[in-house]
């Protein structure tokens, strides 16, 4: 089951511009030189997310999941996580695993949760890897051996499409 592919993003928005949008949110979150304005941060993330930038899609998904700067909306968070996860964004893959594990915005599915946690863990190193590994191991305790094997098979067959 290959991960879905997204269409190409508009060329006028460069990764550098999108990094600036993420930087705005980071500085806004920390109050570094700008007023804390979550709605404005969400607006900038939306601009970058709509152009296919996976980091912005994930970060905007977190905002929707938590209702920070935008109305709380698990379905929108799920959609944004999926877009970023399909591009190989490990944090979005971990977040998507959480949504499947908890049944937030989608029916609970341990096989899908395990697959997404596994994909995230395979990309990360050091302490960053600890969370998806822990999450994968916790969900595995609720699964049969056949379900774990199916999740591992799906993870092997998933081929994310990197962002440009």
Give a structural overview.
There is one protein chain. The chain is mostly helical. It has one domain: Serine Threonine Protein Phosphatase 5, Tetratricopeptide repeat (Alpha Horseshoe), CATH 1.25.40.10. 66% of the residues lie in helices and 0% in strands. The chain is built from eight helices and no strands. Helix 1 packs antiparallel against helix 2, helix 5 runs parallel beside helix 7 and helix 6 crosses helix 8. The radius of gyration is 16 Å and the shape is globular. The chain starts with 14 loop residues before the first helix and ends in a 7-residue tail after the last helix.
Number of beta-strand segments: 0
Q: Note the overall shape.
A: globular
- Specify the CATH homologous superfamily: Tetratricopeptide repeat domain
How is the biggest beta sheet arranged? none
CATH topology: Serine Threonine Protein Phosphatase 5, Tetratricopeptide repeat
The arrangement of helices and strands along the chain is HHHHHHHH
Strand content: under 5%
CATH architecture label? Alpha Horseshoe
Distance between the termini: 22 Å
Mean pLDDT: 84
**What structural class do you assign from the helix and strand content?**
mainly alpha
